[in-house]
Specification:
Layout: E1 2-3, E2 7-8, H1 11-19, H2 25-39, H3 43-48, H4 51-77
Antiparallel strand pairs: 1-2
Length: 78
């Protein structure tokens, strides 16, 4: 199946490749480093994740970090 005549998806593997097309290798390793060093995740767990599972976990972490920052900012204003 080709989307807009440009991106051809060959089954499940093609879907995962297409879903990760926005990410590059430098971002992948930088994000892994930050997750391991600053958030205590295990590198083996990151590599074992399904691509969309990794994105969802990073999205949840980002949302939580933003909420924590807002909470700290509110407490600092008191």
């Amino acid at each position: 199946m080709c989307l807009h005549g440009r991106y051809c998806v060959d089954g499940v593997t093609g879907f995962f490749r297409l879903s990760q097309a926005h990410d590059n290798l430098a971002n992948f390793y930088t994000l892994n480093f930050n997750l391991v060093q600053h958030h205590g995740w295990q590198l083996s767990d990151l590599y074992d994740m399904i691509p969309y599972e990794r994105e969802l976990n990073v999205l949840l972490l980002t949302t939580w970090l933003k909420a924590e920052k807002e909470r700290r900012d509110r407490e600092a204003q008191r």
